[in-house]
Amino acid sequence: MITITLSGGGEPSNERAIAFAKALAASKKQMEEDSKAFAKTEKYQEYLRKLDELNAKANTTDV
Q: In whole angstroms, what is the distance from residue 4 CA to residue 15 CA?
C-alpha cells in the first residue's frame, strides 16, 4: 500500500509525490470515462442481456 501525504506539518510535499498523485487522479478519471463509454456500446448491452437471461433461468424453479 502506498500512502501519499500532500502536506505534513506545514512543510511542502515532495514534488514527485504531488506529480504522482496528480497522474494517478488523471488515470482514474480516464478509466471512469472509458468505463462509461464502454457501458454504452452494443457489445456491453449484449453482455447485460445474456446475464439477465442466465439470472432469469437460475431463478426459475421447476416443481
A: 11
Which residue shows C-alpha cell 496528480? Answer: 22
CA distance 26 to 31: 9
| Measured distance CA(23)–CA(29) in Å, rounded | 10
The three-class DSSP label of residue 60 is: coil
Q: What is the mean pLDDT of the chain?
A: 85
Contact 4, 20 (CB under 8 A): yes
Q: In the numeric block, which cell numbers belong to residue 32?
A: 471512469
Please compute Rg for the chain using Cα positions.
Answer: 22
Taking only the tens place, the pLDDT of each residue in 3-26 is 666 556 666 668 887 888 899 999
* Bridge partner list, 12: 7
